[in-house]
Amino acid sequence: MSAVRREGLYERREGDGLPRWRVSPEPYWLAPADVEVLERLGPILLAFYRSLNRLYYLSVKTPKLAWVHRYLDQGKPESVIEYGRMRRVREQVPGILRPDLFVTETGLIASELDSVPGGFGLTAAFQAVYGELGHPLVGGPDGVVRAFADMVGPGSRVAIVVSDESTDYRAEMAWIARALTAHGTPADAVAPGEVTFTEEGLTVGPAASSRRVDVLYRFFELFDLKNVPKSDLFLYAAKKGAVRMTPPAKAFLEEKSAMALWHHPALEVWWRDDLGAEVADALSRLFPKTWILDPSEVPPHAVIPGFTLGGRPVRDWRDLAAASQRERRLVIKPSGFSERAWGSRGVVVGHDRSSEAWSAAVDEALRAFPTTPHVLQEFHTARRDDVAYYDEGSDAIRPMSGRTRLSPYYFVSGDDVVLGGVLATVCALDKKLIHGMADAVLAPCAVRAAPGRAATDGQGANA
């Protein structure tokens, strides 16, 4: 516990004074087979992002596919759409990929993909602390730091720009900036206002000793650009090639509706031809069934593909409002480009709500389509896990049963994908949503060769 405090990341929440999360006395253990599955998953996800990128640009210039980019561009201002279509960033995909993986009885399920993820600084700090204790961590004691440095490239100076909206992550970004600098990759974690724009590019630090920025790590959301000082200058510098910005300003790569497009029957042949059968089969196992909640009228001879209620096909999403509790093992959430699209904000779990609340959520999602499209997703129950945590009140280690989310951090360098580390989040059994909270246990993942049930039971993304 003292080692975690030493790193300066074990903060208390404002208001109630509770810790932001619980500390585990040991890592979250994975079997070697689990780690092999996670390592195979990185190249698969990179292939998907690149394929989605190609599909988007193809849909822009192909009339019969125009519906694809219309879904991905829905609700966004023209300026944001134009940023994503800049020629200079055409081939770029995010430098860090993080799926949110639930460990279920049948394997891993990715509830969503995050290309502007928090938590990698915390994972890096965990690796440093638990690594000192000799645990065989996934990625090693400095896996995230090394992978980040490789991602930005040798000789690069990095500015991790953290917006006010993302202020809860400022401490962990400052930690990893210090660790990168110590590793030989000079880095600064700064607020947007601390970056200076010049004709030559972007700099940080006082004028007398300013430091030129080679890579701007964008830790701010594109929906929040109007609240990010100098964001227009950052984007201008990226457009002119004066700085490399990652993740690139491609809002269409940050939509949960991408999973719905993956499952759309009209695109099945395109996906399989572009990715190959092996990768396509792996993604079909990984991505839960997902649909875009589009209120548009369906032609009389058509139905919503792949969705039924009580075994009957559905032609109108409004019928969803009358679904029984048994039929409501479904989740509604904003697709993206919204302050409610991250951190489990805006997520509605159907069977956890009353009929009235569920009906209202369906109506709200359909009404919001013009500005904030929502998706509907199958609900998958994460498997029960038993972990331990340090209880400050009693100064004792206590057991806890819960359900686990694994957050592997993949770092992209050219065609290579490196698994830098994995963060486990374990929430109590009565929680339907698994995310960081005051009573969640957070820990880095380590490899344990001892016999026992693997988290994935061999049914991973590419098993």
CATH class of the domain at 153-246: Alpha Beta
Helix fraction, binned, reads: 25-40%
Instruction: Kindly report the CATH topology of the domain at 153-246.
Output: Rossmann fold
Helix count from the secondary structure assignment: 12
Distance between the termini: 37 Å
Q: Which value, in Å, is the CA radius of gyration?
A: 22 Å
Per CATH, which architecture of the domain at 153-246? Answer: 3-Layer(aba) Sandwich
The number of strands is 21
Question: Biggest sheet: strands, sense, closure?
Answer: 8 strands, mixed
Overall body shape: globular
What is the beta-strand fraction?
Answer: 15-25%
Question: Structural class of the helix and strand makeup?
Answer: alpha+beta
Low-confidence stretches: 458-463
Mean pLDDT: 91
Walkthrough of the structure:
The protein is an alpha+beta fold and 463 residues long. Among the domains are: 153-246, Rossmann fold; 289-378. Helices cover 29% and strands 25% of the residues. The chain has 12 helices and 21 strands. The strands form 5 sheets. Strands 1, 2, 3, 4, 18, 19, 20 and 21 form an 8-stranded mixed β-sheet that branches. A 4-stranded parallel β-sheet has the order 6-5-10-11. A 4-stranded antiparallel β-sheet has the order 12-17-15-16. A hairpin with a 2-residue loop joins strand 7 and strand 8 (201-204). Helix 10 packs across helix 11 (277-286). It is globular, with a radius of gyration of 22 Å. Residues 458-463 have low confidence and may be disordered.
